[in-house]
Design a protein that fits this description.
Blueprint lengths: L3 E6 L2 H10 L3 E4 L12 H10 L4 E3 L12 H17 L3 E4 L10 H11 L3 E4 L9 H11 L3 E4 L10 H11 L4 E4 L8 H8 L3 E4 L2 E4 L16 E4 L1 H11 L2
Parallel strand pairs: 1-2, 1-8, 2-3, 4-5, 5-6, 6-7
Antiparallel strand pairs: 9-10
Length: 240
């Protein structure tokens, strides 16, 4: 079975660099500081013009919690249909109820309108109240994979739950570990859990090329980028 490396990217430069470094798939987001939100129309269109590997846009209208109003749900549906119209290979979303359970009614509706795109249930899963029961509900909804860190901030600390999820899933859905995944821990994670798909931003921060900064308004203009050598290293390690 082929091992897949998905890279989370937040701008067009990182998308291009990630593909060049050997990414198998991209998760496309904006707003790193908010945990990722839906990319703009211009960003989506440009990626379709410049990227040849599969791309799964994040569909999330705002940062914060994963309980969405009817107005927000309407936005999510429209963004899913836009991604479908633009020819993306998949989409990424996740909705919870106020009590932390999976909003199965809305997820089923989104999976229906997404078809034939693949669906990844994102790290809203790490905020759900009962991960093992939620796994079964997400499978029933028709999603193809779950992105999870094992309900803790760093994926290596969540490896026990990830292993349990993979065993319970029994190839009915893909469990893709992510959050804090690096070349320093990916081999341990792969061998312990049996995962075959892996997710990372391989993030690094680079200085802005701007030469003038207004000293009266101090701002950090650093740019989120990806570490191409790190991507190559992770790719090599998961395919050994």
């Amino acid at each position: 079975m082929k091992n897949i490396l998905e890279i989370c990217v937040f701008n067009i430069s990182t998308a291009i660099a990630a593909e060049k470094a050997g990414a198998d798939r991209l998760e496309l987001c904006e707003n790193y500081a908010n945990g990722g939100t839906t990319p703009s129309y211009g960003f989506l269109k440009t990626v379709k013009e410049k990227i040849s590997i599969p791309v799964f846009p994040m569909i999330r209208p705002r940062g914060g919690d994963y309980f969405h109003s009817e107005d927000e749900f309407n936005i999510i549906q429209k963004d899913v249909l836009l991604c479908k119209e633009l020819g993306f290979e998949g989409v990424v979303f996740g909705l919870l109820k106020k009590d932390g359970s999976i909003d199965t009614e809305k997820i089923k509706r989104l999976v229906e309108i997404s078809y034939p795109l693949e669906v990844t249930f994102h790290r809203a899963f790490d905020r759900c109240i009962n991960p093992l029961q939620s796994l079964e509900e997400i499978i029933e909804c028709g999603c193809q994979r779950i992105l999870t860190s094992g309900q803790v901030p760093n994926v290596i600390n969540g490896k026990d739950l990830i292993k349990q999820l993979i065993e319970q899933a029994d190839e009915r859905i893909i469990i893709m570990p992510g959050s804090g995944l690096r070349s320093s821990n990916v081999v341990e994670l792969k061998e312990f859990t049996g995962a075959t798909e892996f997710h990372t931003s391989a993030r690094k921060v680079i200085p802005s090329p701007t030469t003038f900064i207004n000293e009266k308004i101090k701002e950090d203009f650093s740019i989120d980028f990806i570490d191409e050598e790190e991507i190559k290293k992770i790719k090599s390690l998961i395919n050994q």
